[in-house]
Amino acid sequence: xxxxxxxxxxxxxxxxxxxxxxxxxxxxxxxxxxxxxxxxxxxxxxxxxxxxxxxxxxxxxxxxxxxxxxxxxxxxxxxxxxxxxxxxxxxxxxxxxxxxxxxxxxxxxxxxxxxxxxxxxxxxxxxxxxxxxxxxxxxxxxxxxxxxxxxxxxxxxxxxxxxxxxxxxxxxxxxxxxxxxxxxxxxxxxxxxxxxxxxxxxxxxxxxxxxxxxxxxxxxxxxxxxxxxxxxxxxxxxxxxxxxxxxxxxxxxxxxxxxxxxxxxxxxxxxxxxxxxxxxxxxxxxxxxxxxxxxxxxxxxxxxxxxxxxxxxxxxxxxxxxxxxxxxxxxxxxxxxxxxxxxxxxxxxxxxxxxxxxxxxxxxxxxxxxxxxxxxxxxxxxxxxxxxxxxxxxxxxxxxxxxxxxxxxxxxxxxxxxxxxxxxxxxxxxxxxxxxxxxxxxxxxxxxxxxxxxxxxxxxxxxxxxxxxxxxxxxxxxxxxxxxxxxxxxxxxxxxxxxxxxxxxxxxxxxxxxxxxxxxxxxxxxxxxx
Length: 530
Ligand code: GDG
Description:
The protein is of the alpha/beta class. It has 16 helices and 21 strands. α10 (312-324) runs parallel beside α11 (347-366). The model is unreliable at 1-12 and 509-530 (pLDDT under 50). Residues 6, 64-67, 69-70, 195-196, 266, 303, 305, 338, 340, 381-384, 387, 404-409, 412 line the site of GDP-alpha-D-glucose (GDG). Belongs to the glycosyltransferase 20 family. This is Trehalose 6-phosphate synthase.
């Protein structure tokens, strides 16, 4: 397998760089979009990467990643704009059009990348929201940068959004944007979706800026979470910390607006991924992968960003012990682990990489025989086609996060099945476990349990696997990315059109909401005007 960076060739979604030019302007200069848009996505990163060619020319190419994978189909069905960082620090790039989308680059200085992105987003919020798997750091200069950069995102979004546009803000890096944007543009309809878990209140309240972030999110009309539990945590905090009235999924905000908080489990473009996996080229590549690995009877596969939340060490440890104990014969079974490079300037990620290198090296070296090592560890990023071939080739997919908002890899594996074969071993701490009940569910902290389940999945009779996979496939194909986006955008529309009634308070007992407010009153969720 070749570890090429994916998509090196110019192809669809590639534009020449006479558009998207670097200009000599301050970072906070006013932005001039080429046109205004009625649908705007705001995310930390633009869905493109710049490619510099040997002849000195540069192009922009559609880039991979969880969020991009998730939103691409939605953006293409709308004529929209996308606001996000273009990936290079200390550089101002003019808005440009790519593949029918207006792209609005948000510049970040080198220090802001360190403080807003690597610092507050990935050193404070990411671990805090993932059950403090590693200790979050609370640094005031990181928070200051987070506020400043969120304001810049809000300013740029306000410049590109048309009157009354729908703006969909994405994820934990931009939680202050809804409120900042509402202050600038009360005419906008604002949705926010959090891709990672929203933590239990006991953990969340550690955050020194807990109230500011809750207020930031409440600037949206609709706040979406992966799971109902996240929405519940948020609603509880809004009551406890901000003393606002909530009833069922609704918050009655101080300015008289109704904000809805609800779960929208994200998914994948299942049909198009299945089509890719079904092609002759993918079939040939899948066969080639198995041949290169020595035609194992059972091919285990792991695919993750290299992140401490993903349970990579637990999984590799479990596989290594099964090999050492002779319960997995390395002549007959192999593990391929793809670990896509991620956040490499953050210390904990560098440490994790070293730990995995050591563990894989130890396991492979302990199998004292000449031939292929039992673990093929690939610290690289691959094209979509190669991912589809890997998924197609694998007999047992192992997804073991310690905490994960959803986990798209689990759904992608299911979508790539050609028949009701294969087995999915899935952590109960991935959001996906709520929907994929027929997976082999495991607790990744319980290495013995994980080992038992890996053996069970490996040896399960075809008929048992088929029954499970049939149900998994139905779930994934019936709840795809279009379903997710439609559900969110339809609800956003209902909230802003005033179709969602502030629920009447139940007569006695029951009722989720507590707190002050007008007893029994029914408010239409008025759209706030300036
Ligand atoms: C966050 C949340 C939530 C990985 N390596 C390659 C590659 N990938 C793709 C996978 C998948 C995506 O990246 C990873 O998505 P996940 O959902 O597994 O995880 P996060 O990156 O942590 O995403 C997560 C998600 O947002 C969406 O809301 O599910 O819980 O943490 O699509 O296939 N793609 C290619 N080459 C690689 O080497 N092309």
